[in-house]
Each structure stands twice: as structure tokens, then as C-alpha cells.
Amino acid sequence: MPSPAPLTDRIAQTLQLRPAQVEAAVRLFDEGNTIPFITRYRKEATGNLDEEKLRLISEELTSGRQLEERASAITRLLQQQQQLTPELEASIRSATSLKQLEDLYLPFRPKRKTRATIARQRGLEPLATRILHDDRTLGDLQQAATSFISTEQGLNNIEEVLCGAQDIIVEWISENSAVREACRQVLRQTGRLQSTGIEKATPQMQAEYRDYLDFSDMIMKIPPHRLLALNRGEREEVLRIKVSWDKHRAQFVTGKILNVDARCYNQFMNEAIAEALERHLLPSLDRELRKDVTLKAEKHAIDVFARNLRNLLLQPPLAPQRVLAIDPGLRTGCKLAVLNETGDVLALDVVYITGNADRQLEARNKIVQLVREHGIKTIAIGNGTACRETEELVAQAIRDELPDVHYIIVNEAGASIYSASTIAREEFPELDATARGTISIARRLLDPLSELVKIEPQHLGVGMYQHDIPPKQLKSALDGVVESCVNYVGVDLNTASASLLRYVSGLNQLLAKRIVDRRKARGPFRNRAELLEVQGIGPTIFTQAAGFLKVAGSEPLDGTWIHPESYPATKTLLEKLQVPLVELTGENSTSQWRSQLLQQAEQIKQQPAELERLASDVHVGMETLRDILDSLLRPGRDPRLDLPKPVFRQDILRFEDLAEGVELEGTILNVVDFGAFVDIGLKDSALIHVSKMSNQFIRNPHEIVSVGDRVTVWVADIDKERRRVGLSLIRPQPSL
């Protein structure tokens, strides 16, 4: 048997990439480089692999190395047991999954006391072996069994002897790797999951799971969100779940593998197969398959959460301006906070919007006063309790006295958790939790990414069944999303919080805190090179982090995406193009020089030979040269600014104003398997069901919308009793 292909070749084949690309990525991973760094600054090495491909390589590499480690461990154990044959060793080396490895090792795994081990202890293994190998010299089984009767061994009659021999054969069949794989496929193709309600569950719990009290479907066809709900119902002892399969088909394929029809003792073997299937294989494979589909459902839920989180974090920041934030409240009043363009607090106050007319007028006057006093153009209202009443008051004030002001409803998911956190207490030690929460509402409008990184992602309200997912798995995946977003946008080294800095490539929580402490002790960083003065940051970490940390200081290139390792090449390039660096990137940069560079860059890019020659002259790869040119043309550009801005309002939308067919503007808040929730200005978000997204069949709502998208929708249906609104992305046909 030929040797299995190297791991990098197998990964390349799985992901349909060139082996050289995978080898380069693996080498860079092993050298300690991060995915954001490799994506942006090692394009030549990997053949311009994007972040998604690199993450897939990393996942395949981890699982492949786990497979190799397990194969080595099993080989070592079998050698110790003196059970390793050349054929078995070759099968272990060629295994492509942990399941295959465990199937091969199963017959040799140390066992607890079973019916088969008891039968062996009673001396029945020779009889079982001869039956299994269809030894026809054995003759009639009844007669052959008589010689094994022994009262000392607890074998008092022929029936007990044959039952013991069958127990051994049943175990052999159950541990046969070919049989297990064939039955695994039968279960995947025919397995059906059935759930029924448990009577002792409370009526309230039964009502919560009413869709699953009498449920049945093919296990491989159950949507991920349904499967997670079924698992939760089983854990909470509301549902009883059973898996069934086509046992006749399983019996048939097992008989084929063991060639039962051609055997002398085929009836005995068929009985053993039936028992092996019922007592061993179905329970074992049932657990395995349910674990597999659950892991797949959990991964799907994590992927949905991650995609929504990425879109939420990359919402564009508000153009620099002062903001009035209102955290609505009834009994305790509405908390007010005025923030300047950089998120510093200018004023705090409280108003009460309930009570008599005089009190409401006082609240309105206070809001108008703060708006005029601080030059506010945007009011951010949290979407919590009393949001509706606050919105009415603000809309009325805008209509009557503040025509140039707009307001926006801000999702405050996680604000209360942030307000009581250590991070919030360190930022605002003199303020109470309610004031911190109000400030957070404004800051997540001014710069969503900088504020939302302070909150554990699972509390941001864009997930699906996140409470059904293992917390460690969820946290790892979501931290990867946050890291990706932070490095995609870049960070101002002199203003970023420790919460933001910790996600920068190469940094961690401790180094982020040391950077902030260094700023407090010695003032702003004057250039990227001063990072090396921070304890714990050496050349390796500096290389990983520097390109993502921008500084407006003594080195003009420190404010761009150009990595310090490419500064000499950049300066050589500009000399060749006769463009002054300071004129291009400094405070007095002019459009004249940028226009000249743009014209030359376009000419260079259209001539591959010229691009290659220039790259050779400045000693960089062609991809790096392209990135340098792009960075010089748009130094310090925030990629989020290219995205559409959120929807601002001046007047309130009332539930009573809605009617079927009404056209509205909204913002996507969350995307799940069955549709998308939309903020259209009501207290509660409305739903676009997946069936209302297109005239064509839509398998995945993410194909159509993403969190943060501005959409035009039409009211499809209204449930007045439950005050729910169904929306559609399909323009209604005019009535004839």
C-alpha cells in the first residue's frame, strides 16, 4: 500500500488550493505569525490567500495534526499489546478521520466486563472462532456445543453454550470496522429522530416546546436551529428523543460484508447480526451521529453569529460630531449624556418623562437646552424600557423646535453588562452604572467597533441559540471575528483603549495594558518604533503588530497601512516617481501630489512588465507594491466609511399607522435561519421571513441581507393582538 500523502497535500486537495500555498501558510503559522498579519503582509508567500482560506487551513492543520497524534498513540498501544500487524499499521496510517482510527482500535481497546468477556472466561472463544470462520468440520452446532458443557464454568446446557458463543460473535461483529462504516451509512441515510413530550414537564415548559411534543423527521434533514432546540428540550427533561433506522437494510449490508448467505451456520450468524445491530451498533452509532449533527448545528449557529457580529462591528462610525445619548427609563427617569467628537463626556443629567404635563415639559425643555448649548445634531436613544415614550418626546421636540436635529434608536444590548464591568469602572470610576451605560449608547454610535469590543460578543444580541453552544467554542470563534475586524480597520495607537488594543495582531491583554500605561506615564507615542520601548514587545511582536497601529507623528508612513519593513522600499519608490513623501502624507498634503501619484499608479498597474520591473527595483513583491501604492493614495482611510450610514429619523412611526403594503425604510438588526429582524422605527423589531425575501427560493437569508444593511421593505401582515409586524422585500403588485 502506498504511503499516505503529506498533510499539506491533503489540506490542499480538500480546500482546492495549490500545495505551495498551503505549505507557505503552515510554515508561517509555525513561525508564530497571526492570520491578520499573513493576510495583509505576506501575500507573495501564500499566493494572496484571504483570511477565510487561511482560517480554513489553520482548522484543517489542527485536526490533521490531532489525527496524526492519535494514529501514533494507537500504533504505540498496539505495539505494547503485540497486536500490530503490517496490514493494521497500513490501515492506521491511511485513516482519514478519527472515526476510522477508533474503529480500527476498537477490537483491542481494554474492555469492562461484558457478556462476551464472561463467555471467553468460560472457555467458549474456540467455539465462537470456528463458527465465525465457518469451520464446516465442526459439524452440527448442537452436538459441537455438548463438549463445552461444564457446571464448573456455569455452562449447564447446550443453550447456554451457544448463547455464550453468540455473545462473543456479537461483539466481534460490532467491532468490525467495515461493518461499522456500512451501518454508519445506513443510519445517516435512513435514521429518523422522534421526540415526544414527557408528562411530568410543567405546562409552561410543554408550551415552550409545543412544536416538538410529537415530532419526527429524518435526522440528516433537521435544520440546525430545530436540532439545537430538540437537544435543549431533552436536557431540560421536557422531551424524550429516540432514533430509529431501517434495521432490515442494516441487516442486509452486514450480511453482505460477512458473506452470511454462503455460510454453513448462516441462521446462527443472522441471529448474531440482529443482536449486534440492536444491542451494540444502533446505540453506539446513534450517539455518534447525534454528536456529529449536533456539532454541525453548533458550528452553523456559530457561523451565523460570527457573520452577524462581523457586520455589526464594522458598522460605519458617525462623522465626527457631538451626540446626546438618552437611556430611557420610567420610574428612575431618562439618563442623559452629552459626548464630544472623540467620545469625552461634556454633560450628564436626568429627566422624567412620566407624570403630569409640567414634568414632561420640563424634560423636553432640558433636552432642547442641551442640544442648543452643545450644538447637537444627533440624538441617540437606547431601545430599552420607555424607548417608545422617549422617542415621542424627542420627535415632538424636533418637530416643534429643532428642525435640524435627527435621532436614531441604538440597540443597547450588552450596555448594562458593560456598565457594571471592570472596564467601565476603570474608565469612569466616579460615575454610577447608569451613567456609564448611557455613555456607552452614544459611543457605540460614534464608533461601534471601539465600544462594542468592551462587551463579550455573546451579549450583543446578534446570535442564534448561543446558549445551546459550548461557551469555550463560541468564545474562541467570536474572539477570532473581533480580532479580524480590529485588524481590518486598524487602530490609533494614541487613542485606542486597552480593550481594543488587546485584539491587535501579536498583542494580548497584558501588552495592551502596558501600552496604555506607557501613554499615561510618558505621553503619546511619537512613532511606531517607540512601541519597542514597551516591556514585553520585542522585534517579533513588533513585526506582527506595527502595521495595524497607526500614529500621527514624526514618521509620515506611520499613519498608513504600510508596514515598517517596507518603509525603505516605499521611500525608494517615491523617489523614482518623484513624489515628495511629506507632501503626500503630511498635514499639508495636497491633491496635486496625490493626483500625480494616482496617474502614475494607474499607468504602472496597467503594464505588468513595468509593475514587475518597479517591484524588482524597490525589492518587494508585486502584491506588496500594489498595497504600497493603494496605501499612499488613501493614507489612513477607514474602510468602514465606504459603507452606508444608519437610518436617522425625525418623526415617530406608530403601530397604528401601519397597513399592509406600506413602504418603509429599515435597518437589519439580526439575521437567522428563518429570516431577518428589522428596525423600522417601532419599539419592537419586525421580521422578514425568508419566504418574503425573494420571488426565488432562498436557502440562506445571508444570501440576501446582512446586519446593518439599509433596506426598503413593505408591510406584509400585521398581528394586532401580539403587535407583531411581518415585512417583505418583494414590492407588492398594484391591485387592478
TrEMBL record:
> Which GO terms of the molecular function aspect are on file?
mRNA binding; structural constituent of ribosome
Q: Which SMART domains match?
A: S1, YqgFc
Pfam families, per database record:
HHH_3 (PF12836), HHH_9 (PF17674), S1 (PF00575), Tex_central_region (PF22706), Tex_N (PF09371), Tex_YqgF (PF16921)
CDD domains the UniProt entry points to: S1_Tex
Per the UniProt entry, what is one GO biological process?
A: nucleobase-containing compound metabolic process
**Where in this chain does the record put each S1 motif domain?**
661-730
What's the source species for this entry? Planctopirus hydrillae
Per the record, GO CC terms?
Answer: cytoplasm
| Protein name in the entry | RNA-binding transcriptional accessory protein
InterPro entries registered for this protein in UniProt: HHH_9 (IPR041692), NA-bd_OB-fold (IPR012340), Ribos_protein_bS1-like (IPR050437), RNaseH-like_sf (IPR012337), RuvA_2-like (IPR010994), S1_domain (IPR003029), S1_Tex (IPR044146), Tex-like_central_region (IPR055179)
The record's PANTHER family line, in alphabetical order, gives: 30S RIBOSOMAL PROTEIN S1, S1 RNA-BINDING DOMAIN-CONTAINING PROTEIN 1
